[in-house]
Amino acid sequence: MKFFNKIIKSLLLVSVLALLAPSLYADSKGVIVVSKDVNVKNLSKKELERIFLGKTTIWDNGKRIQIGLSTADGEKTDHFFKEMIGKNQRRFKKYWLKLVFAGYGIAPKLFSDNSKVISYTKRQEGVISFITAEELENIEGLKIVSIDGKKFF
Fold it and tell me: Is the distance from CB of 33 to CB of 121 less than 8 angstroms?
């Protein structure tokens, strides 16, 4: 009987952990936000990639696209870059250094934490930023942009 009790307890523990897994995974997700003047609700992954690589530089309203990024959480930011942009954070920075020194672009604004990115995105026009899901309570006045229909990734 003790053997079956241990099995049942183990199964319950595994079930509870499986139920908690989505909330644990949500902590690793991020969102794309834009300043309130940007009239974009959805972008394709390819459009997002073109924006973050400086290949698309003007919004539909004619304003220049500005990019804001936080360097605080390297792991989550790296995940975003690898999955959505196709480069890790280091390669992304090198890519932009080459563009800037060749005179072909204005580098993204890098900040030491997400709250500074959010503040920058609220203050400036035409800004697109990646933030982690933990910061969602601080984004009043910003718009979340879906990527291929998904708000979180």
Answer: yes
pLDDT of residue 13: 46
Sign of the CA dihedral with 86 first, then 89, 90, and 93 last: positive
Tell me whether strands 66-70 and 127-132 are parallel, antiparallel or unpaired.
Answer: parallel
Q: What are phi and psi of 149, to 5 degrees?
A: 85, -5
**What span, in angstroms and rounded, lies between the C-alpha atoms of 139 and 141?**
6
Six token digits for residue 137: 């309570």
Are 138 and 70 a contacting pair, CB within 8 Å? no
Q: How confident is the model over 116-139, as a mean pLDDT?
A: 88
Residues 121, 127: Cα–Cα separation, whole Å: 5
Task: Kindly report the number of other CB atoms within 10 A of residue 84's CB atom.
Answer: 18
Q: Is 86 helix (H, G, I), strand (E, B) or coil?
A: coil
Are 109 and 68 spatial neighbours (Cβ–Cβ below 8 Å)? yes
DSSP per position, 64-77: BPEEEEE-S-HHHH
